[in-house]
Amino acid sequence: MIPVAPSETPADISIPCVAAADGVAMGTIHVLRLDPDPSGDSARIFSVEEVRQAVESTHAQLEAFQRRIHSRIEESVTQVFRAHLAILHDKDLMDWIEGGVRAGRPAVAVIREAYGHHIEMFSRSPVARLREKVQDLEDIANRLVRNLHGGGQGGAGLHGRIVVAHALYPSDLLRLVAQDAAGAILIGGGTTAHINVLARSLQLPLVVCDASGAGRLTEGTAVLLDGGRGRLMISADPEVLTAYSQLSAADQAAPRPLHPCTMTADGCRVRLLANVGLLSEGQMARDLGADGVGLYRSEIPFLLRDDPPNEDEQVDIYRRLLDLAPGGDAAIRLLDLGGDKIAAYFPHDLGPNPSLGLRGIRFSFRHPEIFTCQVRAILRAGHGRRLRILMPMVSSVDSFRDVRAVIERCAASLAGAGIPHNPAPSLGAMIELPSAVLLVQEIAREADFLAIGTNDLVQYILAVDRSDDQVAAWYVPWHPAVLRAVRQIIDAAVVCGRPLSVCGDMACDPVLLPLLLGMGITAFSVPPRRLSRVQDAIRGLRMDTSAALAARTLASPTIAGVEEQLGLPPSRFRRGPAAPLGHGGVKES
């Protein structure tokens, strides 16, 4: 059964927020900011030797965090903490601090001055990579002063804390997880797809809160955070806390292994695949008994680093993924960078409409050296293995053929150099653009398999930027136009005899599952931790009743008619902007 969230009581103080990464957290607020004097003893005089001892204590803590995160994430991400260590031992900073201390000034004031200068300088930089260092500087300054006062927090610096921040980058999430944070709240802006995906992969509950509610989120305040349902409560009723404690325990429990074969109640075989962004998720999918990896987000290792992984590093990651994948079956999606998923080391201008900008295979063609490096790495990793490559953001037959030509050239180059590789991978197309839907039968004839990217499909059909909270209410996955587009894709796959899977939030929505099943979808790709819940839902469905539901629903030309068939409350945008969020959940890419 899929857990149901407890209802709020009149005594609860709720702060409006939007779901970003699921999970339940209960703890006290910790505000990320430069506040390097928690003891209040800012006038105390320290010696240079005491400052150096604080530096060494901070160094030891950062190394402990590095070991902890490496044990959870096998990809090359330890450079995040190497960067922290480089800042800690930066000669200019240390000369500034030690010089001030030797002059008899209070150490805390000198640290605030030195780090504050660099924070101000970096925050004004036009280079995104430098702006991302601001919170690293703040964290190190805070930690250095705590250790100076003998208040270091050891290896679990944020245990039981829910972190509030005005910006979060991938390196921040890694740092929070390494320090054992319970959850995170992002203030005053929309989150991005890669932050959602990474937070979910790292099992860090996350919500986005409007700036108007930030005043209540003060240091040490006890809060309850429900990242999957978009709830944030202060002074929650004891009964609500008890119920959420049980829900949190269920969320944190190890996922239940799947039954050996996923079947509907009337005997129809369904394939359950896993969406994977980290190698640890590939291992989880294998342990749980998934039928394969339906989507590997190859951009995640790029987003976690300060520079792109080289060809050999990528070969190692993809090879390990293919070895972990259940049945050796994994679809590696080519880089889906751009839009709201951008690595800081790429020079970029998001422009006024990032979702309509340079992303997916457009981004790859703009950066051919990155593109060919990735393709070569995938082909090398696939040597002697089953290999499927999935193309994101296919907009035409031409774009599919253009990517195929790059793959063929890379294979020829590897062959010419005598480098072992897979010369003939299966090539698939993500159908997520309206243009691809209109050409889906022609694209299906070119491709070996198809995958429906439901989140982007909804976004582009409905012209709703899914990273913009101002229009979130208009993001309606059950819109008749979306459902009819899915129907058209299914028909094309059947006519051309191509395997078809669905990934994205629709694939694990318990309300939409019977509808998709009734439309003819028999392969679903979902986050590993949701596999057992989706299997339970499918095992309780019948194909005949699902098909009847699909027929009735597809016949409706209105959102209201679809909602009536599915038993959903009226969509939020039809109830007015002040109404709470309706059905739906966190969005990933």
List its traits.
single chain, 589 residues, alpha/beta, Glucose Oxidase, domain 1, eight-stranded parallel β-barrel
- Sketch the major β-sheet: 8 strands, mixed
General shape: globular
What's the total count of β strands? Answer: 16
Question: CATH class of the largest domain, anyone?
Answer: Alpha Beta
Q: If helices are DSSP runs of H or I spanning 4 or more residues, what is the number of helices?
A: 24
Second-tier CATH architecture of the largest domain: Alpha-Beta Barrel
What count of structural domains? 3
**Residue share in β-strands:** 5-15%
Helicity, in percent?
40-55%
The CATH homologous superfamily name of the largest domain equals Phosphoenolpyruvate-binding domains
**Average of the residue pLDDT scores:** 85
Question: Structural class of the secondary elements?
Answer: alpha/beta
Measured on Cα atoms, how large is the radius of gyration?
25 Å
Question: What would you say this structure looks like, in words?
Answer:
The protein is an alpha/beta fold and 589 residues long. The protein has three domains: 1-31 and 159-253, Glucose Oxidase, domain 1 (3-Layer(bba) Sandwich); 39-150, PtsI, HPr-binding domain (Enzyme I, Chain A, domain 2); 271-575, Phosphoenolpyruvate-binding domains (TIM Barrel, Alpha-Beta Barrel), CATH 3.20.20.60. Helices cover 44% and strands 13% of the residues. It has 24 helices and 16 strands. The chain has helices at residues 48-72, 79-88, 91-102, 107-123, 128-131, 134-148, 170-178, 193-201, 238-252, 279-288, 300-303, 311-324, 361-366, 368-381, 397-416, 434-438, 440-446, 454-462, 480-496, 513-519, 531-539, 543-554, 559-566, 572-575, and strands at 13-14, 17-21, 24-31, 161-165, 183-187, 206-209, 222-226, 231-234, 271-276, 293-297, 330-333, 388-391, 426-431, 449-453, 500-503, 523-526. The strands form two sheets. Strands 1-8-7-3-4-5-6-2 form an eight-stranded mixed β-sheet. Strand 9, helix 10 (279-288) and strand 10 form a beta-alpha-beta unit. Helix 1 crosses helix 6 (134-148). The longest helix is centred in the first third of the chain and has 25 residues, at 48-72. It is globular. The model is unreliable at 575-586 (pLDDT under 50).
